[in-house]
Structure formats: structure tokens, C-alpha cells
Design a protein that fits this description.
Length: 85
């Protein structure tokens, strides 16, 4: 199992306040077997995550945070600071 995948999955579950992989798979539009295969391969379904964020803005999903651990706001602030330097 891939540690990076597990960390990203943990962040996503935390943000969505869910506990089960099956619930994540359903939200991402995947069946349980497809999600499990991606998990075994350590291949986080980023494209599905971006699609979910666009399709469900009510979830307030920060894709940057789920994938990297850095919020979109923090990443933007850092980029602005570096641009001024």
C-alpha cells in the first residue's frame, strides 16, 4: 500500500467527515472494486477528485489540501510572497 495514497485518503475522509473507503468511492463516482484497485496501485484518483470538487461545490473541497496538505489559500499566499521577492 502506498503511504502517499493513505495520507491523501485520510485528508479526504477528514474533510468530508466520512470513515469508509466505500463512501469515498461512491462520492468519486467509482465502484468499490475500482477504488480498491487504485488503492493497491497507490494511484490516487486525482481526476475524480477534481470532478467532484466541480460537481459538488457545496462540499467546499480544497483539492490542493487533499493532495498536498497545503491549502489553496496558503499556496496562493506563498506564490504571491515569492513573486514580490
Amino acid at each position: 500500500m502506498d503511504k502517499k495514497f493513505d495520507v491523501q485518503l485520510g485528508r479526504l475522509k477528514s474533510v468530508l467527515k466520512i470513515k469508509e473507503d466505500q463512501e469515498v468511492a461512491k462520492l468519486l463516482g467509482m465502484n468499490k472494486a475500482a477504488f480498491s484497485a487504485r488503492k493497491r496501485a497507490g494511484s490516487f484518483p486525482e481526476e475524480k477528485l477534481y470532478a467532484l470538487a466541480l460537481k459538488r461545490p457545496d462540499l467546499g473541497l480544497d483539492v490542493s489540501y487533499v493532495l498536498s496538505g497545503v491549502t489553496e489559500e496558503a499556496a496562493s499566499a506563498l506564490a504571491a510572497k515569492e513573486a514580490r521577492s
